[in-house]
Automatic annotation (TrEMBL):
Pfam families: Peripla_BP_6 (PF13458)
Annotated coiled-coil segments of the chain: none
Domain Leucine-binding protein intervals: 43-366
Similarity comment: Belongs to the leucine-binding protein family.
Protein name, as recorded: Amino acid-binding protein
Protein's UniProt keywords contain Transmembrane: no
Amino acid sequence: MGVLATRSRRIVSCLAVAAIALAGCGNKGGDQKPTNGTATGEPIIIGMDEDSTGSGAAYSVIAGKTIRLAIQDINDKGGVLGRPIKLVVENDESDPTKVPATLQKLASQGAKALFLQSGSAAILQAKSTLTQLGLPAIAPTGVTATLVTPPDNELIYMLANTTNDWAQVYCGAFAAAGIKKIGVLTDDTTTIAALDKALFAQMSCVQFVATEKGAANASDLSAQVARLKNANPDAILVTSVGGAFEVLAQNTLGSQMAGTKRFSLASIGNQPSSWKLAAPGALNGLIFMGSINTENPRTKDLIKLLQDKNGKDYDITAYDAQAWDAVHVLKAAIEKAGGVDDPKKLNEAMQTIKGYPATFGQGNFTLSFSAEKHLGADGACGLSLVEFGSDNKPKGPWATFQPPCNK
C-alpha cells in the first residue's frame, strides 16, 4: 500500500509537469501567425476551442499540436486558395458552462470556422451556440454520437467512429473471447460520465457485475480494485480520460488482478507519455480501442512527417491522425466553397465531401458527409483493437478479434 501510494504520487507529479509543459506550447488568442510562403492576401481565420488545462487536456493538447502543424504545412505550401490560415485559440477547460463565451470570443476574433477540441460534455453544449453564431465546426476527436444528431446539429461534424460502433466492437471482442461478466473502473470526469452512459446503453451483450469510480486525481485505487476482484468478472474495462488516473488504474489492476483480461478506451493507447510512467509490464496484455493501423499507407506517410517534425521517436496517435484529417477536410470544404466569407456556403460545401481517404483506420477507410450524415466515418474499419506488449508499448492488432470493414 505505502509503495503503491508513493509511486502513484510520483506519477501524478510527473504527469502534472508534462501537462504544464505541453500546455505551454500554445497561447490563448492568436497563437499561430501565418507564414508568408506563396500565400497572399488576408488570412483565413480559423478558431480552435482547445482544452489545454482541464480534464480533456490529456488528448486535446496532442490533437491541438498536430492541428497547428497541419496548418503550418498548408501555409508553407501556399495556403488555401492562395491565402494563409491564421489559427486563434481559446480554452474552455472542458467546462460546459464556459463554452458559449469561449466560442463567442473566437467568433469576435474573426473565426469563420471552428475546431472543437475539448471534452464531449463541453462540445455538446457548443451545438446551440454554433447555431446562434452560424459557424460550421469540426470536433476532430469527438466520439459521442449525440454530438452530430438533432437538435442543433446543422453546423457540427465529426470524423471518428462513435461509441455506438465501439459498443459493437467490444461486444464482438467479448463474444470471441468468451467474456460474459464485466467489471468497470472509471474516473469521475463529466466527459467519461457522458461517454459511459452512451457506451454502456449499447452493451447488453455482457453483464456488468461491478462498477467502481475514482477521482481523476486519485493517488490510490486499491479499495476500488479489491471490490472489483470480489465481483469475480471475466474482464475489466477501464474508462477514463487517461493521464494519471489510467496509469494508476493499470498499475493497480496489474498487481492485484494479474491474469484477468483488461480492456480500455482509446485514451491509454493515444498517450505515449503514460506508457513510460506505468510500472514495468503493467500494460502487458491490455487491449484498447485504437484507430492507428500502420498498414494504411496514408498513416505511414503521416508517421514519417510527424517524426520529421517531432523527432524519430515520436509515437503517432489517433488524435494526431484525426487532427490532421480535420484540418484537411476543412481545407477541402473551403476550396469547394470558394472561400469563407459565406458561412452557409461553407457549411454546404462540407456536406459535399465524399470518400476522403483518412489517415487513420484501415487502408480502405474513408470519410464522407452529407446534409443527413454529419459523422464522417464510412463503416467500422476506422477502429482496431490493439494489444500492449511486455515493454508497455502497443505491439499490434489483437489476434482474437478485429472489427469488419463493412460500409
